[in-house]
Amino acid sequence: MAKINLDALIPREDFEVDSGAGAQNLADRLKVSELVKGQGFFYSSLRKPDFQRETSDWDKNKIASFVKSFIEGDLIPSIILWQAGQYTFVIDGAHRLSALIAWVNDDYGDGFISQAFFNHDVDNEQKKVAEQTKRHVNKEVGSYISHIDAIKNPDQANPELLSSANKLGFLSLQLQWVTGSAEKAESSFFTINQKATPISDTEISLLKARKKPYAMASRAILRSGSGHKYWKLFDPDMQDTVEKLAKEINDWLFTPEIKTPIKTLDLPLAGKGYSSRTLPLIFDLVKLANDVSEKEVSEDITGQETINYLKNTNKIIRRFTTTHPSSLGLHPAVYFYSEKGRYQPTAFMAWIEMIKDFEKNNYFNKFIDNREAIESSLLSFKYVTNQVTIKFGSGLKGYKQLKEVYSRIIDLVIEKKSKDEIGAELKHSFPYINIDYLGEQPKTPNFNQNTKSEVFISSALENASKCTICHGYIHINSISIDHIKRKQDGGIGMKDNGQITHPYCNTTYKN
After folding, report:
1. How many helices (H) and strands (E) does the chain have?
2. How far is CA 472 from the centre of its chain?
3. Domain endpoint, select from 143, 171, 198
C-alpha cells in the first residue's frame, strides 16, 4: 500500500543550535490543539533533526488507526523530545506527531503546509495518495474540523461524533525529555530509532553524511530541488544551481509517471518517484556516478562540490534516456523493468557501471553496431536479472554480479553466438542461473496486475518504434528527428527526408 509523505509537517533544523541557558519547566503532556498551525507556540517551535529520515513510512490505514487510537484514549508511547534554544526537537515519535498534525491541519501531503514546503510543486502521485488518505481518515474517525464543529453546534451534531469530540479536551500525548548536549541527543536518536524501526544501512550512511556533497545532492534530486534545503548555507547562486540541476535530474529519472497495470511503454527511467525505495536508489546512483566508495569525501562548505556531484550524476543520466546529444536512449522496458513490469534497481545500477566502462574504453560505437542483437538477447534472457538479484541481493549488493552477466551476453552477441549458444554459455559461466526458468506463474484463472502488465509489454514491444540507424528501441524521452540526407549535403526539412533516431546515433555515430 502507498506510503504517505508527511515530511513537510515538522520542519528540519540543524542540531548545532544555541542551547541557551538550559531547559526549564518542561511540560509532560501535549494537547492536540497545540498542533494546529498558527494557534500555539508549541507547533511553531517543533523541529526534526536534520539527519532524521523522511517521515513517509505510514500508509493511510496506519494513520487512521493511530488517530482513532488517540481519540479513543488508547495507550500511546511517549513522544521523546529535546529542547535547544528556541526549538523543540523530536528524538522519537515523528510519525506519531506528524499523523496528528496531518489530522488537525487537514494536510496529508498536499495541504497548505506541504505545498509551501515543496514550493507548490507537489507531484501528482503524492496528491493522489494524500486525497485517498484524507477520505479514509474522514470515513474512519471524522475530520478534526468536524469534531470542532460538533462542539460548537452540539444540537446539530451526530451523537457519536459529539461524544468523540468532547473527549478531545481531555486527551493528550505524554512527553519525555532528553537532557544534555547535542551529542547526547543525537546518540539517543540513533539508539532509540535502531531499536524501534531499524534504519537501513543506506539510510544510516545518508543521515551521517548529511553535510557531504553526495548526501546533499541525493536529497536535492529526491524532491526536485524543493523540500528541506540542506544546502541553505550556500551562496544564493550556488543554491539556485543545486536546485536547477536537481530538478533536471529528477525529471529525467521519474517522468512520465508510472501507473499499474502497465498499459504504455512510456515508462520512467527510475521507476516510481514516490516510494520507500526512491531515496536509496538516488543515493546509490549519486555514489556510483561519483565513485564515492573509492575516495574520502569531506563536508561541503561552499556548495561547489555538491554541484560537481550533481553534474557528474547528470552526465551519467544523460547517457540513458534523455534528448541530450550523448543519449543512447536505453529503453526502460528493455533494460530496467522485468517482463512483468516491475522496476529493477539492480539492473539500473549495473548499467551505470556499464556506461562508465563504455566511456573508459570508447565502446559506444561497438555497442551501437550490435545494439539490435544485444537488445533481442536481453529480452530473451529477462529472467536472468531476477535470478542474479535473488542470489546476491538488490541494488548495490548484486549490481556487480549482474554487470558481469550483461557484459558476457554482449560479448557473446558480438561473437555472433546464437541464442541457444548464449544460453548454454550463461549456464556454464554462472551455474546458479536457470535459463529455462519462466518466473513465478499465477495459480488462479484471473489475470493479476503483473500478468496484465506482462501481456501488454510483450505485445507492445513487438510493434514498438525503433531507431532507423541502430534498430534499437526508441523511448518517448529520447526521440531525435534526423535528416536522412544531411543538411550539408542539400537535405531539406520535409517529412520524406526525416527519420526517428536516438540522439547519439544522430549526432555522433552517424557522423
Report:
1. 22, 10
2. 28
3. 198
Q: What is the pLDDT of residue 335?
A: 97
**141/99 Cα distance (integer angstroms):** 13
- pLDDT confidence of residue 332: 97
Mean pLDDT of 284-293: 91
More confident residue, 436 or 465: 465
Domain assignment of residue 284, yes or no: yes
pLDDT mean over 224-232? 84
Identify the domain containing residue 335 by its residue range.
243-504
Question: Three cell numbers at 98?
Answer: 506528524
| Residue 21: predicted pLDDT | 43
Rounded CA separation 344/360 (Å):
25
Residue burial 40-64, b: 16+ Cβ < 10 Å; e: rest? eeebeebbbbbbbbbbbebbbeebb
Going by the DSSP 8-state scheme, the letter that residue 440 receives in this structure is P
pLDDT-derived band at 279 (thresholds 50, 70, 90) equals confident
Bond preceding residue 256 cis, omega within 30 of 0:
yes
Cα angle 344-345-350, degrees, rounded to a multiple of 5? 105
Give the pLDDT mean for 439-461.
Answer: 84
Identify whether residues 280 and 425 lie together within a single domain: yes
Letter string b/e over residues 491-508, b meaning 16 or more CB atoms within 10 A of that residue's CB: eeeeeeeeebbbbbbbbe
Task: Kindly list the distances between the CA atom of residue 64 and the CA atoms of 1, 111, 302, in Å, as whole numbers in the listed order.
Answer: 14, 17, 43
Single out the residue of 318, 345, 320, 322 nearest to residue 330, CA to CA.
Answer: 320
Please state the separation of Cα 349 from the chain's center in Å: 15
* Domain assignment present for 219: no
Contact 188, 177 (CB under 8 A): no
Q: Residue 444: what pLDDT?
A: 76
Burial of 120 (0-12, 13-18, 19+ CB in 10 A): exposed
CB 460 within 8 A of CB 265: yes
Q: Decide if 83 contacts 185 (C-beta within 8 A).
A: no
